[in-house]
Design brief:
Strand content: 15-25%
Largest sheet: 8 strands, parallel, barrel
Number of strands: 25
Distance between the termini: 52 Å
């Protein structure tokens, strides 16, 4: 323990006051390096802000160890050459200047190469299914030879030495998440019959060789940790018992701490869990490893709130907690937790819209749905307004409260008009039992409005009510779109939002019309309450435009309940006890006690139009521009408030 933050293990109660030094930034790709893997000023600004928030250690995102097959993604950080050292040193210095311990993770992507270009190197010629779907035979890995394996082993050791030379105080070997080392460890991806395949001893051989090479090159006193998946959650993958045995072996080889998570990219909902998956999803695996080793264990994975971190440390399930997405939502999470201000932490809602979707599937740098400043550090800072003015914000949903918050912080005199409870449609979004992550976001926004002393006028604002304000931000949201078929006005027809807010409680047989995000979530919620549900979607598939992890998680839930999905099917009419549809097999009638409509939302911008016509300075934010996601509400509101 003496090598790994001795100050953390001081006597005394492990609680809020000591949590700061037990929280660290878990590494996740940012997409902000240069194309050659070198450090950019943008990356330095980003990590400087992450380090300024009170985390005890910042583990910099995975850096590729060789220039052959290790690089995983666009603008991926490199540590494959001495040419990378100057930039890495610059990065390490900036992290240390903010009071955090600079560390870095090193990796080889194996078969999970987002770039989709050869060479893809792996122990066996078994492609990642997503890449196969996208690139076909080009996604099939080239099988590593023994000599190539040894080259990779040495590349890890050389990379670790570069990290030490650059000024990092710890190096973490990435042995999890479906990258190269787990390609060897998992029977799913390792079909070799030589000394690197088959038995557990053979499948963990490359781990042992890499740890030995790293230790030889960095010396006995330099901290070396490793990240492991408790399991890859594959049907024929590796169980926790094998990971525990691997940990025991690696502890004997000199590993100083284990960083435990889970899953691979094929089972991504267990690696980067969406809100439909329970919080602290992989902590059970950290606890299992901790029982088997004597060195510290870092627990990670969906530890979104301080209360979860406190419980993990207090119960002995982990010695540290690693935060990835929560430090994107609020880089000052550790600082606020240490100051006993959890209500001021902007919570991660595990939507994966600004982070996972952008980096993995859109080839962009990361950001965060609820924190627009991530990856734009120094560009979108809240600064005092040159001329403070009287600002009216109309609408108490996410966009309205965020616009009011930022405008108030800039020094404006802000009044918020809300004709319903603060939070708007966030309440309906949080209604399904599997979306409880949104409730802390409602509490955070409401608390900030209260703490900033922003007056809330509980009324529907008309143009006349806004006379005397210098500018008006219209966060007037959207309203449900009606179902345009005969019978849509019958008593059995209800809007999905009325179901989600509890105004209507359907039972028996229910037809949900519309398989987008709202329709799918409503159908799932009703099915899990015991209804017999048919979900009707006119497109060839449901959940178009929904985050990939949500799609995977919801598909798993759909398979477990009484929910039939009809795609490429349109509703033609609603009868007193049934819904008429037309699909690939022709016309049909579905018995229904209730019909729930989720065919979209329509932006409400009449007030904005009236104000602009009258010459008033006005702005649209959130759903009032176009129905969107929480991401759109926060980003449009934040940027608009910076213009005021």
């Amino acid at each position: 323990m003496s090598k790994l933050f001795p100050h953390v293990f001081s006597p005394g109660k492990i609680g809020t006051l000591t949590l700061k030094n037990r929280v660290m930034k878990a590494p996740q790709s940012s997409g902000m390096s240069n194309i050659d893997g070198s450090v950019t000023e943008r990356l330095v600004r980003y990590y400087r802000e992450q380090a300024a928030g009170g985390a005890g250690m910042i583990i910099v995102e995975y850096a590729y160890v060789d220039d052959i097959g290790a690089k995983s993604a666009h603008c991926h950080l490199g540590i494959s050459s001495n040419e990378h050292i100057p930039g890495l040193a610059w990065l390490a210095e900036n992290i240390a200047e903010q009071g955090a311990v600079p560390a870095i993770q090193i990796e080889h992507c194996g078969r999970q190469k987002f770039l989709g270009t050869q060479p893809i190197k792996a122990p066996s010629a078994i492609p990642w299914p997503k890449l196969w779907d996208q690139y076909g035979t080009q996604a099939v890995p080239q099988v590593l030879t023994i000599d190539e394996i040894q080259d990779i082993v040495h590349a890890f050791g050389d990379a670790a030495l570069r990290a030490k030379t650059a000024g990092f105080k710890l190096v973490e070997i990435h042995g999890a998440h479906g990258y190269l080392l787990t390609n060897f460890f998992s029977p799913t991806t390792n079909h070799r019959t030589d000394l690197y395949g088959g038995s557990l001893e053979n499948r963990m051989r490359i781990y042992v060789e890499i740890v030995r090479d790293v230790r030889k090159k960095v010396g006995p006193d330099f901290p070396v940790t490793i990240r492991l998946s408790g399991t890859d959650y594959e049907p024929d993958g590796f169980p926790i018992e094998e990971t525990v045995e691997l940990a025991r072996v690696l502890e004997r080889e000199g590993i100083d701490a284990f960083h435990i998570s889970g899953g691979d990219h094929h089972t991504m909902i267990h690696q980067v869990s969406p809100m439909a998956i329970p919080v602290c999803h992989n902590v059970w695996a950290a606890e299992a490893v901790k029982k088997a080793v004597s060195v510290p264990v870092i627990a990670s994975g969906s530890i979104t709130l301080p209360e979860y971190a406190e419980e993990i440390i207090a119960s002995g399930k982990g010695d540290f907690v690693g935060l990835g997405r929560p430090l994107w939502a609020d880089p000052h999470w550790p600082e606020k937790a240490a100051a006993d201000r959890p209500e001021d932490i902007r919570p991660c809602i595990r939507c994966n819209e600004g982070c996972l979707e952008r980096t993995f599937f859109q080839y962009k740098a990361i950001t965060c749905a609820v924190n627009p400043t991530v990856s734009r550090e120094g560009e979108l800072d809240i600064t005092p307004a040159a001329n403070p003015r009287r600002i009216a914000v109309v609408g108490g949903g996410a966009a309205g409260m965020e616009a009011a918050r930022v405008a108030k912080l800039r020094g404006h005199d802000v009044t918020l008009f809300a004709d319903g409870k603060l939070g708007g449609l966030l309440h309906e979004a949080a209604a399904p039992s599997f979306k409880s992550d949104i409730k802390p976001l409602i509490a955070y926004l409401t608390t900030q409005v209260e703490k900033l002393g922003i007056p809330v006028i509980e009324q529907h604002a008309e143009a006349a009510d806004l006379a005397g304000f210098d500018a008006v931000v219209c966060a007037t949201g959207s309203k449900p779109t009606a179902l345009p078929v005969p019978g849509a006005d019958k008593p059995l027809v209800h809007d999905a939002l009325a179901v989600l807010d509890g105004t209507v409680e359907p039972s028996g047989s229910v037809v949900v019309v519309g398989g987008g995000l709202v329709g799918t979530e409503t159908a799932l919620e009703l099915a899990e309450r015991g209804c017999t549900v048919t979900l009707v979607e006119m497109l060839p598939q449901i959940m178009t435009g929904v985050a990939a992890t949500d799609c995977l998680a919801y598909q798993e839930r759909i398979a477990q309940v009484d929910l039939e999905v009809l795609t490429s099917t349109s509703v033609t009419a609603v009868e007193d006890d049934a819904t008429c549809v037309r699909g690939p097999k022709g016309a049909a009638t579905i018995p229904a006690d209730s019909v729930v409509v989720a065919v979209g939302l329509t932006a409400q911008h009449d007030l904005y139009d009236e104000l602009v016509e009258a010459g008033t300075e006005a702005y649209l934010v959130g759903d009032a521009i176009a129905p969107g996601k929480i991401f759109d509400a926060f980003h449009t509101a934040y940027r608009t408030a910076l213009k005021l």
